[in-house]
Write a structure and sequence with these properties.
By secondary structure, this protein is mainly α. It has 2 domains: 102 residues, no CATH class; 73 residues. It has 8 helices and no strands. Helix 4 packs antiparallel against helix 8. The longest helix has 34 residues. 9% of the residues are buried.
Length: 184
Amino acid sequence: MNKMKLTLHLLFAILMLIGCNPNADQSQSNAAKPETESSNESKKDANNADAHTKSTQEDLSEDKIQSLKVAYFTSELNLSTQEAEKFWPIYNKHNRIYQDLGDTEWNTIKEGLREVDTYTDQEASQLLARYKLYLNQRLENRLNFMDDLSSVISAKKIMQLKHAEYNFNKKLLKQYRSSEATTK
């Protein structure tokens, strides 16, 4: 029963990824995705670039991406219910730390990089020191993340997670690029 539930989650995630692309092959889309009121609306909106852009942004909302990620990772890692209960709080905590670090430190560094041509050597040295600190904090967070995960899942599943993250992000980026190409 649990494997069936995981399979359904994965199928849902795949359908959602296919459903986000209005230019997906019609035979694939029609065979894999049931007709719903929202998919009919998406087809109508595809003729209007502004409406399509709004629809794509809604399709790729953070909540929807998170739901797809949960289903995809749970399936790819074949997490038991007990593992999933322990895994997701750790994953979300470290993801939040990583995101917060990017939002604060990296954004400040990026601003500095835009003006680096006007910097003195001393100002550039300060920016470089800040960048090194940022990289060390990212590395420390990732190492702590792996240590925390090792108390919940096996080393193999940790590496499968890395592979699943890569594949998920690759599919998401491909979907984003595809939707961007249709709005131009």
